[in-house]
Input
Amino acid sequence: MMQRNLAGKALNPVGLGCMNVAWAYGNPPSREDAVALFRHALDNGCDHFDTANIYGGGVSEEIVGEALAGRRDEYFLATKTGIIIDGPRRGIDCSPASITASLDGSLKRLGTDHVDLFYMHRFDPKVPIADSVGAMADAIDAGKIRAYGVSEWSAAHIREAHAVRPMAAVQTEYSLWTRNVELGVLETTKELGIALVAFSPVARGALCGELTDIATLAEKDLRRTHPRFHPGNWEKNLDLIGKFSALSAEAGVAPAQLALAWVLSRAENVHVIPGTRSIAHWAENNASGDLPIDPAILARAGDLINQQTVSGHRYPEVMRGTIDTEDFV
Output
């Protein structure tokens, strides 16, 4: 299986995003099913698990810790800090004290003494970058983390942080219909030797070809708040998705596999972390790194779905203020 470097480790470029089992999309599976999914993934070649302290208020980390207990040397583990969702206390906090306390809480929930990669989940303009990176450096020196990264940061701020202490990874949304990293972040990571870890690489499930009626989304499904899934935009995007599904059939692969293969084809430093609640979908996703898809098909996919053809912004207005990654005008 093809491997790519992440924080000094050679890994399968298709990791597993662990948000879906606890939060955001649809109704979470039972804890028993979530544990079974993670164990199956580890048993069958998944070596990169990505979670965060806010996914289900720590529940995702707890499930990862329970599912993979006793097998810590078999997988690469990443988690995140910085987003505060605590009753009325909400916002971004990447102060050294918050980073340190958050890390200790994550390690306890994960049942480990270290994580391989610890991200600042969002950029905190209130805290000097050198101070936030300093806390990460202290955690590295203490052996609590092996490397640090950032999520949804701009190219300029990535460079500033990297100059203080080299970072291992930048995580950001990247898919056929979200191309913001192409405004600067992708080239910056390539130049500096940083891995780019793409979340939502199948467009929050839209490119899987299974969602057709947004009315079927659960009441609290996060996608209900996102403009691309709103009436008026969704119908236009669904037309693109139908054409994309036909293109994947022509290629002889599942729509999600074509979407993942396209992201992985963008650069050698790119990894993807699709999330799922299904063992079958996990297996489908996991095979994407080695599929021999004709470059002409990938090019047609990119021409079909891109920033110019998709309808609606990637985030609701309330969330756009927390995103530091460059945006399209």
